[in-house]
Amino acid sequence: MKKVVFSAILACIGFNVSANENAKRIIEFLIEDDIEVFRANGKSGFMDAMPTVNAAQLIKEYGDNQYVYEKKYDKNLVNIKTVASGVKTSLTGEPYVVANGKNQFEYVSLELKNKDDAMNINKGTKLDMICLGSKNNVIFPSLKSCVTADSYFDKFLNSVMSDLDKLDINDKPSNKLEAVYLAMWEFDKQKPNTLEKFKTAEDFEKNQADFIEIMTIAQTKAKDGVKKFTLPKP
Predict the structure, then answer these.
(1) Residues 1, 205 contacting (CB under 8 angstroms)
(2) Distance spanning both ends of the chain, measured CA to CA
(3) pLDDT, tens digit, for every residue of 8-30?
(4) Predicted local distance difference test score (pLDDT) of residue 203
(5) Angstrom distance (rounded) from CA 110 to CA 98
(6) Pairing label, strands 126-132, 86-89
(7) What are the backbone angles phi and psi of residue 62, rounded to the nearest 5°?
(8) Which residues of the chain have pLDDT under 50?
(9) pLDDT value for 138
(10) What is the distance between the alpha carbons of residues 93 and 62, in angstroms, rounded to a whole number?
(11) Which of 164, 163, 157, 159 shows the shortest CA–CA distance to 183?
(12) Cα–Cα distances in Å, from 159 out to 71, 82, 163, 172, 175?
């Protein structure tokens, strides 16, 4: 149910000290649930454009057609789940992680954005990282700016909520997520205490009448063509 609701939200359509905490709280619930669905390999609402892959899959795609591979992945987000084969050092002294494919002769290199992350990675370490694809590949794929998925999603959620804090109720939304937030705020003013009863994302999802009304308001706020909500780079 979670994935269906968040997908519908994004398809349909700062805070200052006066920010609406009810609206902000529910948006945070929905984002946290969507992250949970994504990380469990489910179909999420706003992360459907970020593929989850392993080393062997990337190596095969790269070997099958390098041109297609680079069109698909260059400068795009990639969630790679794999096992480290080791940590090596580049000619410039920077650490990078190697993850083998089906044998020791094929591999993906992962260049770390935070070099200190290499201190916690050894041969056999399970990796769950968010990276950027690249055209700078040699024999096998190379991923850039890799960070742990934990750190990426923590930073992402904090950034989204900080941006919402800067909005005022009469502001024009810059993306569809902000349109939904402002719609919730307006709804909360029209029907005080209604949003307060929702203590979890599931509570909100079950109330179709309120959901439809909020989405209708969001569509009105987004009618001038606000941007699609996109995930930030690592």
Answers:
(1) yes
(2) 29
(3) 555 544 333 345 888 999 999 88
(4) 84
(5) 6
(6) unpaired
(7) -65, -40
(8) 1, 4, 12-18
(9) 81
(10) 27
(11) 164
(12) 29, 27, 6, 19, 14
Per-residue pLDDT at 2? 52
Question: Which strands make up the sheet holding 126-132, listed edge to edge?
Answer: 52-53, 77-83, 126-132, 142-148, 107-112, 95-100, 86-89
Q: How many other β-carbons are positioned within 10 Å of the β-carbon of residue 64? A: 9
Total residues belonging to the chain: 234
The residues with which 97 forms a beta bridge, in sequence order, are 87, 110
The first and second tokens of residue 187, run together, are 């709804």
HSE (side-chain half, CA atoms, 13 Å) at 47: 29
Closest CA to 143 of 234, 60, 230, 41: 234
Distances (CA, A) of 86 to 52, 98, 180: 21, 6, 44
